Amino acid sequence: MAEAVEPLPSPPDTSPIATSASARTALSSPNTTQRDRVDIASSPSSSRAAPPIPTFASLAQSFRDPSELNSHLLSLSKAELAAIIVSEAGKSSTTTTTTKSPTPESKKYAHCVYCHEIFDKEHNVGCQVMHYGEIEEIDDDISQLTCCGLSLDYTDFDSNIGMPPEEEEPYCYEGGHWDRFIDQDDDEEGTWWQEWGNSGRTCKDIGCQGMVNPKKRRYKYS
After folding, report:
1. Mean predicted confidence (pLDDT) in 123-151
2. SS3 label, residue 188
3. DSSP letter assigned to residue 49
4. Do 160 and 192 share a domain, yes or no?
5. In this structure, are 82 and 129 located in the same domain?
6. Where does the record place the region Disordered (predicted)?
7. 189 domain-assigned
8. How far apart are the C-alpha atoms of 128 and 58, rounded to whole Å?
9. Are 136 and 144 in contact (CB under 8 A)?
10. Are residues 125 and 198 in the same domain?
C-alpha cells in the first residue's frame, strides 16, 4: 500500500503589501493636508496691526481720577499689564544710559579765594567776607570802613545797651563763592574786593594754597 504524501506548507508571502486605493490617493495628493491646515500668517486677523501699548503718561492723562485708573488697570489681562511694564522698563533703561554722568568730585568742589570755604559749584551759596579795613572817622558821629566803604552812624549808639554799627553789619560781602579774584569785567557791586590783596587774608597770607578738601569747610579767622 502506497504511503500518502503530505503537501509541503506554502512559504510566507514576502511580497510588498498592496497599497490600498485610499492610501495611494492620500500619498499621491500631498496638498490634501495643506488645504485642511489653517495658515495663521495669511489669516486676515493677523494682518491687522496690534494696538499701541499705552504708556504711564497716557494712562494718567486718560484717567485723571485715581479710582478710574485703578479700575482700568484691574480690567487688563496679565499679558497687557506685562506689555506696559516691559515697555516702560525699556524707556527707563534708555534714559538711564543717556543720563549725564555725575561730575567728578575733583571738579565739583572749589576753594573760595575770599572766605576760604570749600564749596559745591552746583550749590554756590553762603560766602561771607568779614570787614578787614580800618574805621575812618568822617565827622563826630559818622565813620566809614576803608575795606568796603560802609558808613557807620554812631549818633544813637550807646555802648551800654547796643552793639556798635560795625558789629551789626559784620560783613563786607554775602553771596556766592569765588574760585578766582573778581575783576572789573565781573561788574560786581561794591568796592570791598578791590583792596583784597592788602587784607592780610589772601590764600598766600593764610597758606591754604587753594587746596580743595570737602571735609575742611571753612577757615577760622583768629
Report:
1. 92
2. coil
3. P
4. yes
5. no
6. 1-53
7. yes
8. 49
9. yes
10. yes
Residue given cell 506696559 in the structure block: 84
Place of cell 552746583: 122
Residue carrying C-alpha cell 573760595: 112
**In the prediction, which pLDDT does 32 show?**
46
Within 10 angstroms of residue 192's Cβ, the number of other Cβ atoms is 23
The Cα–Cα gap between 23 and 29 comes to: 10
Asked if pLDDT for residue 17 goes beyond 60, the answer is no
User: What domain range includes position 57?
Assistant: 51-92
Domain limit, last residue, from 64, 92, 120: 92
Q: Tens digit of pLDDT for each residue in 27-62?
A: 444 454 444 454 444 445 445 666 788 887 888 778
Q: Are residues 87 and 120 in the same domain?
A: no
C-alpha cell at 160: 551800654
Could you tell me which of 130, 134, 147 has the C-alpha nearest to residue 190? 147
List Cβ<8 Å contacts ≥24 apart for 201-208: 201/114, 201/116, 201/132, 202/113, 203/111, 203/113, 203/116, 206/116, 208/111, 208/116
Go through the chain and tell me how many residues it has: 222
pLDDT-derived band at 104, boundaries 50, 70, 90: low
Point out which residues pair with 181 in neighbouring strands.
none
Q: How many domains does the structure of the chain reveal?
A: 2
Distance CA(108)–CA(121), nearest Å, equals: 6
Of the ranges 38-42, 133-137, 187-191, which is most confident? 133-137
Based on the fold, state whether residues 153 and 190 are members of the same structural domain. yes
